[in-house]
C-alpha cells in the first residue's frame, strides 16, 4: 500500500488529459445544458417545462465541475476558446475566476487544517472555541452551517460570498465579481422580457436554486461528515487530509455523471490535476483509494452530515450541537 509522496507520484499517470475527450465532454454538456435551459424558459407544456428546469439545474452542476477542472489546470489549457467559455460560465455561475481560484486553491492547500481551513470552505471550530465565543459569533457560525443556509447557497454562498463580499473586500482584485452580478441581473431581465414570469421562475431561478444548493451541499459534505478528521497545523499532513478528511460519496452512475465524478473527492484532493473523467479509473485500479470514509445522498446520510457542527479534539471527531452542551 503506497503512502505519502509515493502515493501522489503513483497518481500522476492518470493526470494526463485526453484533449479530444475533454472537448467532446465539454461541448456535449453545453449542448444538453442549452437545450434544457431553452426548454425551461419557453415551452408549451408546463410539466415538460418543469422537467427541463430540473435537468438544466443538474447539468449546471456537471458544467460547474468541468469549469472547476479547468481552473485546476487539468483540462483544456492554452485554448482561447476554452478561456472564453469558462470566463463567461464563471460569470453565469456566480463564481468568477478570480475569487474561485483564490479561495479554492487555498482550500486545497489547507484542507482539514484547524484554524486555517475556513477560507474557501465551511468554518470549523473546536468545542472549546465554540463555548468560549460570544453568543453573536456562535449564532453566525451555526447560521453558516445551517441546512437552510446551505439549501439557499444561491444567495448566501454565491451571490453574497463569491460576488458581493469578494468585491467589497478587494474591488481592484475582484472586478469580475461585479461583472458576474451585472451579467446575472441582465440575464434575468432578458429572460423575463422574452419569456415572462414562467420563463423567469423555471428557466432562470429553478436551475440556479437546484445547482447552487446541490453544489453547496456537495462542498459541505465533502469535508463535513461523520468520521472526518481534522489536525492542527503542527500535525497536519496533505495526504492524510486527502484520505481521511475528504469523503467518497456513493451515487448512482447517473448522479456521478451529473456531478462530474466529484464524489471521488478523496482522489481529487490527492491530485487535483487528474481530469474528472479519470477519477473512476483511479478508484478502480488503485487499492489505496478503495476503502474511504463514505457518505451518500440518502436522506439518512444527509441528516448525519448536516448534524455535525464542531470538532471535539478529546473525542477526535465532529459532534452535534447537543453533544457540545452535554
Quick take:
It is built from 16 helices and four strands.
Quaternary status of these chains?
single chain
Question: How many separate helices?
Answer: 16
Tell me roughly what share of residues is in helical segments.
55-70%
Question: What structural class is derived from the secondary structure elements?
Answer: mainly alpha
What is the terminal-to-terminal distance? 40 Å
Q: For the largest beta sheet, what order do the strands appear in spatially? A: 1-2
Q: Shape, please?
A: globular
Poorly predicted sequence stretches spanning 5 or more consecutive residues:
none
Write down the overall mean pLDDT: 95
The radius of gyration over CA amounts to 20 Å
For the sheet with most strands, the description reads: 2 strands, parallel
Elements, N to C (H/E): HHHHHHHHHHHEHHHEHEEH
How many structural domains?
1
> How large a portion of the residues is in β-strands, by DSSP E?
under 5%
Q: How many DSSP E strands?
A: 4
Structural overview:
The chain has 326 residues and is mainly alpha-helical. It is built from 16 helices and 4 strands. The protein has one domain. The strands form 2 sheets. Strands 1-2 form a two-stranded parallel sheet.
Per-chain topology:
Layout: H1 4-10, H2 19-41, H3 46-71, H4 80-92, H5 97-110, H6 127-132, H7 135-144, H8 147-151, H9 153-169, H10 175-221, H11 238-244, E1 248-250, H12 253-258, H13 265-270, H14 279-285, E2 294-296, H15 299-307, E3 310-312, E4 317-319, H16 321-324
Parallel strand pairs: 1-2
Antiparallel strand pairs: 3-4
Helix pairs in contact: 2-3, 2-10, 3-10, 9-10
Amino acid at each position: 500500500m503506497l503512502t505519502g509522496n509515493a502515493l501522489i507520484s503513483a497518481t500522476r499517470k492518470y493526470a494526463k488529459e485526453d484533449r479530444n475527450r475533454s472537448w467532446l465532454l465539454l461541448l456535449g454538456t453545453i449542448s444538453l445544458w442549452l437545450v434544457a435551459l431553452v426548454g425551461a424558459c419557453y415551452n408549451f407544456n408546463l410539466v415538460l417545462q418543469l422537467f427541463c428546469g430540473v435537468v438544466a439545474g443538474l447539468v449546471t452542476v456537471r458544467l460547474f465541475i468541468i469549469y472547476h477542472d479547468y481552473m485546476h489546470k487539468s483540462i483544456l489549457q492554452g485554448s482561447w476558446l476554452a478561456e472564453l467559455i469558462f470566463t463567461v460560465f464563471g460569470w453565469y455561475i456566480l463564481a468568477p475566476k478570480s475569487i474561485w481560484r483564490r479561495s479554492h486553491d487555498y482550500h486545497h492547500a489547507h484542507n482539514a487544517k484547524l484554524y486555517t481551513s475556513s477560507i474557501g470552505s465551511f468554518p470549523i471550530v473546536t468545542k472549546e472555541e465554540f463555548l468560549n465565543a460570544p453568543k453573536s459569533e456562535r449564532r453566525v457560525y451555526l447560521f453558516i452551517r445551517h441546512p437552510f443556509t446551505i439549501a439557499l447557497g444561491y444567495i448566501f454562498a454565491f451571490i453574497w460570498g463569491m460576488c458581493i463580499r469578494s468585491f467589497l473586500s478587494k474591488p481592484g482584485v475582484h472586478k469580475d465579481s461585479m461583472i458576474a452580478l451585472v451579467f446575472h441581473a441582465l440575464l434575468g431581465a432578458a429572460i423575463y422580457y422574452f419569456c415572462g414570469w414562467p420563463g423567469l421562475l423555471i428557466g432562470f431561478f429553478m436551475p440556479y436554486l437546484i445547482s447552487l444548493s446541490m453544489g453547496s451541499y456537495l462542498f459541505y459534505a465533502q469535508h463535513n461528515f461523520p468520521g472526518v478528521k481534522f489536525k492542527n497545523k503542527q500535525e497536519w499532513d496533505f495526504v492524510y487530509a486527502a484520505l481521511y478528511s475528504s469523503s467518497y460519496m456513493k451515487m448512482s452512475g447517473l448522479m456521478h455523471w451529473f456531478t462530474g465524478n466529484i464524489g471521488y473527492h478523496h482522489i481529487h484532493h490527492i491530485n487535483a490535476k487528474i481530469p474528472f473523467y479519470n477519477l473512476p479509473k483511479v478508484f478502480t485500479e488503485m487499492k489505496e483509494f478503495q476503502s474511504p470514509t463514505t457518505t451518500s445522498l440518502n436522506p439518512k446520510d444527509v441528516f448525519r452530515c448536516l448534524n455535525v457542527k464542531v470538532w471535539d479534539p478529546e473525542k477526535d471527531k465532529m459532534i452535534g450541537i447537543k453533544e457540545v452542551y452535554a
